[in-house]
Amino acid sequence: MQRRLTSILIFASMIVTTTGCTGGNMDREPPETVYTEAEAFAPMEAEAAEIAASLPDFPGFYTRSWNEMPCSHDGIDDEDYVNIEIRYGFDDADSATSNVRDTYVSKLRERWTDLGYDIHRDEPSPTGKNYSLEARRDDGINLWYSVATKVTLYVQSGCVTRSDPSEIAYIAPTGGVDAGSQRDNIRIDGFEGMPEAPSETATAPFQESESPSPTGMVPWAREPDPSETGPSPYEGLL
After folding, report:
1. Spatial strand order in the sheet of 131-136
2. Do 125 and 222 contact (CB within 8 A), yes or no?
3. How far apart are CA 3 and CA 85, in angstroms?
4. Residue 206: CA count within 13 A, CB half-sphere
5. Residues 6+ apart with CB under 8 A from 95
6. pLDDT over threshold 80, residue 111
7. What is the pLDDT, as a whole number, of residue 103?
8. Is 214's pLDDT higher than 60?
9. CB neighbours of 7 closer than 8 A, spacing ≥ 6?
10. Close Cβ partners of 117 (under 8 Å, ≥ 6 residues apart)
11. pLDDT, tens digit, for every residue of 149-183?
C-alpha cells in the first residue's frame, strides 16, 4: 500500500512539473500594457520635454526619431503588439562635452530618484568610456540615457497594443529639433501625419550628421545584433 501511494504521488508531481501554470499559454503572452501605441506617444514626448527643460545649459537635441520595433517570442513576431522607441540625439560636438557626458548623467540620476522611478541600470561600459543610465516609470515607460560616441536619450514604451497608423497623432519634437525637418524622422509604417518641412531648417547651430546609437532590448523583441547592448525595459518583470 505504501509503495502504491508513493508511486501515485510521484506521478502527480510529474504532471504538475510538466504542465506548469494553469494559465496554459500565459507565459507566452506579452505583459498587460497601460497604453495603446497611439496613446503612448504623448506621455513619452512629455517626458522627453521635461528632461530637456530640467538639464542645465541645455545645448539642444540634434535629431528626433519615432521607431517601431517588433514584439516577438521564441522568434515569432506578434503583429498585434509593437514596441515604440523615441530617440533624441545630441550632435557630435555636444556629445563630446563633459556637460552632456557626465553632468547630465548625475542630474538625471538625481531627477529620476526624486520622481521615484526604478533605476535598474547605472553603470559604465567595460572600457569605462561609455555609460548607461536607465530608469522605468510606474506606467512601464523606460528611459535610457546612453553615453557613447554619440549621446542619445531613448524613451521606450515596451510592448504595447498596435494601433492603426491613422490613430497616431503627430507630436512636434522638443529640445530644438524643427518639426518636419530632415532631423525629425518618423519611421512608422503607413503614418501620414508628417507636417511639411520648414523652408529653413538651420535655426540652431548644429552639425549635419546622424549615426543612431544601438537600441536596447525590449520584452518580446527579436534578439539583438552583437552591437546592441541595452537591457530590456521590463527586465526581471516577465
Report:
1. 118-124, 131-136, 142-147, 151-161, 76-89, 63-73, 184-187
2. no
3. 59
4. 24
5. 89, 101, 149, 150, 151
6. yes
7. 98
8. no
9. none
10. 135, 136, 137, 143
11. 999 999 999 999 999 999 999 999 999 999 999 99
In whole angstroms, what is the distance from residue 164 CA to residue 37 CA?
A: 9
Q: What are the backbone dihedrals phi and psi of residue 108, each rounded to the nearest 5 degrees, phi first?
A: -70, -35
* Residue listed under C-alpha cell 533605476: 119
Rounded distance between C-alpha atoms, residue 122 and residue 105, angstroms: 9
Question: Quick one: pLDDT band at residue 29, thresholds 50, 70, 90?
Answer: low
Q: Is 140 left (phi over 0), alpha (psi -120 to 50) or beta?
A: left
Residue 51: alpha-carbon gap to chain centroid: 15
Mean pLDDT of 13-38: 55
Rg (CA), the chain: 22
Residue position matching grid coordinates 563630446? 96
pLDDT tier at 25 (50, 70, 90 boundaries)? very low
**pTM, two decimal places:** 0.72
User: Mean pLDDT over all residues of the chain?
Assistant: 78
Domain boundaries, the chain: 29-238
User: In the structure grid, which three cell numbers stand for residue 203, read together?
Assistant: 535655426
Report whether 219 contacts 232 (CB < 8 A): yes
